[in-house]
Amino acid sequence: MSAAAIDGVAALRSVVQRVNQAAEKAGRVSDQIRVVAVSKTKPVSLIRQVYDAGHRSFGENYVQEIIEKSPQLPDDIEWHFIGNLQSNKVKPLLSGVPNLVMVESVDDEKIANMLDRVVGNIGRKPLKVLVQVNTSGEESKFGVEPSGCVGLAKHVKEACSNLEFSGLMTIGMADYTSTPENFKLLAKCRSEVCKELGIPEEQCELSMGMSGDFELALQIELGSTNVRIGSTIFGAREYPKK
User: Fold this and answer.
1) Among 53, 155, 193, 220, which is most buried by a count of CB atoms within 10 Å?
2) For residues 75 and 190, what is the distance between their CA atoms, to the nearest angstrom?
């Protein structure tokens, strides 16, 4: 096993331990919290070693990357797509990754309708989706405005029979200074969505918390159920030189 792989496996164990500790501190059950190992820009060999250590939830941000990696890896991996998704990439994504379990980045009706249509056309089982909410108000971030999250969630639940509305996702601010506010806002959105749709809050996931702020996101009043950890497990991202 290469040094990078040993580090990745050790880092994964350390993240899982930190999740367990944060959950315990918040009086939460750690098996209700999913760690998605975000492997963007990382080679298949490294993902395979984290898989061999027993991990099954992996996330990717780019369609091209996930459709190249997925066929080279075991089909019991549960892939999450967490990047911005364009309409013309929906079909290649769904056709190329049969074990895609969730799209976390639905941020308008157009993409929801496209996903719904393609899932129906290729005859795969309903796809779980999260509505991405822009809780920080940053123009560089994707996501529906908080005021629009109830409407979009309702659209997915009522108009998209091939999708399963599963909750909400957000990306906190990179400097973590206002992140608690971002996370509190997502929790507030969840309360409003659940009330409007008549579903219990525990059936509505909150995907929030990344390498720098996941312990914060797991606090009981914030209540993340899905943390997306990339660099802490896999090391810094390797982007091609421009």
Assistant:
1) 193
2) 32
Task: Please tell me the distance from the alpha carbon of residue 242 to that of residue 240, in angstroms, as a whole number.
Answer: 6
Measure the CA–CA gap between 62 and 39, rounded to whole angstroms: 10
> What CA–CA distances, in Å, run from 111 to 1, 126, 190?
41, 15, 21
Q: Which two tokens stand for residue 214?
A: 């996941």
Tens-place pLDDT, residues 105-163: 999 999 999 999 999 999 999 999 999 999 999 998 999 999 999 999 999 999 999 99
Beta-carbon contacts of 43 under 8 Å, excluding residues fewer than 6 positions away, are: none
Mean pLDDT by 10 residues, the chain (242 residues): 74 93 90 94 94 96 98 98 97 98 98 98 96 94 96 98 98 74 94 97 94 85 90 82 63
Please give the CATH architecture assigned to the domain spanning 8-229. Answer: Alpha-Beta Barrel (3.20)
Q: How far is CA 154 from CA 71, 120, 127, 204, in A?
A: 34, 19, 16, 13
